[in-house]
Design brief:
mainly alpha; Serine Threonine Protein Phosphatase 5, Tetratricopeptide repeat; 2 domains; two-stranded parallel sheet; 13 helices
Length: 242
């Protein structure tokens, strides 16, 4: 994690750097109006605006990095009723407690630095945590929050789309889950092979063996060079050749 993760909670409670710099700029202009005019007031003001905005953005990025690190730290926490020697923690009594901590940290990041990359990644983490707790509707809301703000080519888009497919399956809606995997394959072509494997699994589990076989039989041709080709062939074999 970058040095932005070193920003402390105390630092966050200090007066916002944006406000400090903006105040200093206003004070300078008030006391040096004649100088500002003589030296090109517009240029001076423009420079101060640039400095102010840049400082504010740097502060936001530092805060975002710290908040996102809280999310990942909770997700990496260990299950133990007591602190383990030589381990930093955090420690949780059970996995449910760990997922609750992830949700709390992610919710905080999404609220405090909305619109940032950190907030988007926190939304995916929150969705994953809700999935692990079987909280399907809450998971869907988190994934949709990510999709609403993330660019179409964002590298984590497959995680949110796949998460929605898992949510639909968890709620027992096979058709919706299949549609979600199809959407993933369309929007994230690099993951189309994985999507087809999941679709075949769902179809087979719901008794649509012929449709599952059709996907698996044509897998190698549809996804040439895929590292999942052997897995698709194995699954086809397990379903039988009839």
């Amino acid at each position: 994690m970058s040095k932005s993760a070193d920003l402390t909670r105390k630092d966050m409670k200090e007066p916002d750097k944006f406000q400090v710099v903006a105040g200093e700029a206003a004070s300078w202009l008030t006391g040096h109006r004649r100088t500002a005019v003589l030296t090109g007031g517009v240029a001076v003001i423009a420079l101060l605006v640039v400095v102010t905005v840049t400082t504010y953005r740097e502060h936001q990025e530092s805060m975002a990095g710290t908040l996102l690190s809280d999310v990942y730290r909770a997700a990496d926490g260990q299950i133990s009723s007591v602190p383990l020697p030589g381990q930093r923690g955090p420690f949780f009594a059970d996995d449910a407690s760990r997922q609750r901590a992830v949700i709390a940290a992610a919710t905080s990041a999404m609220a405090e630095v909305p619109g940032t990359r950190a907030a988007s990644l926190a939304a995916v983490a929150r969705g994953d945590a809700h999935v692990k707790l079987g909280e399907w509707d809450q998971a869907a809301v988190a994934y949709q929050a990510y999709l609403a703000g993330a660019p179409r080519d964002d590298s984590f888009r497959f995680g949110a789309l796949g998460g929605l497919a898992v949510v639909a399956e968890g709620k027992g809606n096979v058709e919706e889950a299949l549609a979600a995997w199809t959407k993933l394959a369309t929007e994230v072509p690099a993951q189309a092979d994985r999507a087809d494997l999941e679709k075949a699994r769902l179809l087979a589990a719901s008794g649509k063996t012929a449709e599952a076989k059709a996907i698996l039989a044509g897998f190698a041709e549809a996804h040439k060079g895929s590292s999942l080709a052997s897995e698709a062939q194995d699954r086809l074999g397990r379903l039988g050749t009839n």
